[in-house]
């Protein structure tokens, strides 16, 4: 009986013992750090950035940044919360991603272009982020937020220049797209056009072909991503990228209007207090941080040039993945 | 190249077998979080269920309460936990949200099997133990628990299997483990790696099954094992 009891106790504890034997789970040493071998950038000031795979600028990353579980977060510049500071991409790693209205050249004539020209012209990244927060956090209706912003900019004045014109406005399937598509559609309607809305069509792989096929006539794109989609190579230079984009779009019968100042691109955000502690305003400033930091981002980040690969190559930062 | 060839290449790459993202370390992390979850569930669930089974009371209540962990999908529990605790770590780098989800998954089989195992100990054994002058606790510890051991161990075995198969979810809240291959593979669209990760999880679950079946045998008292044997003719001396 005693032997049995001892055996049983041993078995019951077996699982706990598996866990108990692991005080030395720390495999992190400096040699594991990826050396930015063929970089031209100066080496960093000594601090290593540990990467935590989370989600693509989603709720996990946001919560982790707000809780202080991570110091740095890979984010989209137009989806930042209050109290976050987006570090300036001072070496132009990320291609320009200004919002821009694109349309079919057989539908977007001078009259339509004149009406749509001023719509996104005053839109800044901060204003876009603020409206995205209202839609994401406060569950505001994108169409209502669009109306409010347009009224504030005095862009909803009634006009008759588009009487008799009928246009279909499309959008991709995320809230920012619905917001800006609503702006476009409301301004067109205010000027007398007969507008139908086809929102939330899907990703770029769905929306862009729909424009070429004439299923929609106009929607809002992002300069760099659209140029990339059309086979070009975007850069941090807006004029150059825009010229390339217009050249690539024209043969497809697509006209690209003037871009907004607002951009929705990949970036790095920190909390205000982190920015104050280390005097951070640009990504370059990270190189002089001697403390080890923790960064959260999408799981594919270590293998992407818009993320860790680019920060190593262009900024000479050292990461531990 | 074929998909199977890609998977074979993945395993053949020497870089897979060392470093923090190598298979040995990921296996260890997977075992660590699984062992911790089952360990916590055993420490919390087994004594309570054993005592209730001994009393033959509140069994339905205990089983139904613990079954919440089985009724709610672990992924939902993980997402809920991530809202509460983010990616913060409880101990040894183990994320709280994942541990809670896995402990809740491990509890139902342990509680159910322990309760049923003890509640169904033969009345004769219970009476004999008390008749020999054992206290209630002594009877539980020295007579009823050994008799119920195979059933109790079976619960631990089932719990371990489920936890190992599910622990990959911890990769969603920034933990390592074999789920890292699956989550990262989906993010980078490297499907041979996703498949390799799934194979490793299944292999680990099967290995654990073998080890725990052995433990279950060892934990079964000789008397109980003999009593379960088919009756054979006496061999002449």
SSE layout and pairings?
The complex is a heterodimer of chains A (321) and B (237).
Chain A: H1 2-20, E1 49-53, H2 59-67, E2 72-76, E3 84-86, E4 99-104, H3 110-116, H4 125-136, H5 142-152, E5 166-170, H6 175-190, E6 194-198, H7 204-212, E7 218-222, H8 223-229, H9 238-249, E8 254-256, E9 266-271, H10 272-278, E10 293-297, H11 308-315, E11 319-320
Parallel strand pairs in A: 1-10, 1-11, 2-10, 5-6
Antiparallel strand pairs in A: 2-9, 3-9, 4-7, 4-8
Helix pairs in contact in A: 5-6, 8-9
Chain B: H1 3-12, H2 23-55, H3 59-66, H4 68-71, H5 74-85, E1 89-91, E2 94-95, H6 96-119, H7 123-131, H8 136-166, H9 179-187, H10 191-219, H11 222-228
Antiparallel strand pairs in B: 1-2
Helix pairs in contact in B: 1-10, 2-6, 2-8, 3-6, 5-6, 6-8, 7-8, 8-10, 9-10
Question: Can you describe this structure in just a few lines?
Answer:
The complex is a heterodimer of chains A (321) and B (237). By secondary structure, chain A is of the alpha/beta class. Chain A has 11 helices and 11 strands.
Write the CATH fold name of the domain at 28-175 and 204-220 in chain B: MetI-like fold
Average pLDDT for all residues of chain A = 86
Structural class of chain B: mainly alpha
Query: How would you sum up the major sheet of chain B?
Result: 2 strands, antiparallel
Largest interface: A-B, 35 and 47 residues
- The rounded Rg of chain A comes to 25 Å
Summarize the helix and strand pattern of chain A as letters. HEHEEEHHHEHEHEHHEEHEHE
Write up what this structure looks like:
The complex is a heterodimer of chains A (321) and B (237). Chain A is an alpha/beta fold. Helix content of chain A is 36%, strand content 16%. Chain A is built from 11 helices and 11 strands. Chain A has helices at residues 2-20, 59-67, 110-116, 125-136, 142-152, 175-190, 204-212, 223-229, 238-249, 272-278, 308-315; strands spanning 49-53, 72-76, 84-86, 99-104, 166-170, 194-198, 218-222, 254-256, 266-271, 293-297, 319-320. In chain A, helix 6 (175-190) links the parallel strand 5 and strand 6. In chain A, helix 8 packs across helix 9 (238-249). Chain A is elongated. The N and C termini of chain A lie far apart (52 Å). Mean pLDDT of chain A is 86; it is low at 8-42. Chain B is an all-alpha fold and 237 residues long. Chain B has 11 helices and 2 strands. The relative contact order of chain B is 0.13. The longest helix of chain B has 33 residues, at 23-55. Chain B has helices at residues 3-12, 23-55, 59-66, 68-71, 74-85, 96-119, 123-131, 136-166, 179-187, 191-219, 222-228; strands at 89-91, 94-95. Helix content of chain B is 74%, strand content 2%. In chain B, helix 1 packs across helix 10. The model of chain B has no long low-confidence stretch (mean pLDDT 90). The radius of gyration of chain B is 22 Å and the shape is globular. In chain B, strands 1-2 form a two-stranded antiparallel ribbon. Chain A binds chain B through residues 1, 4-5, 7-8, 11-12, 14-19, 22-23, 25, 27-28, 32, 52-54, 59-60, 63-64, 67, 69-70, 296, 298-300, 303, 321, and chain B through 19-21, 25, 28-29, 31-32, 35-36, 38-39, 42-43, 46, 82-83, 86-88, 92-93, 141-143, 145-146, 149, 153, 156, 160, 171-174, 180, 183-184, 186-188, 215-216, 218-219, 221-222.
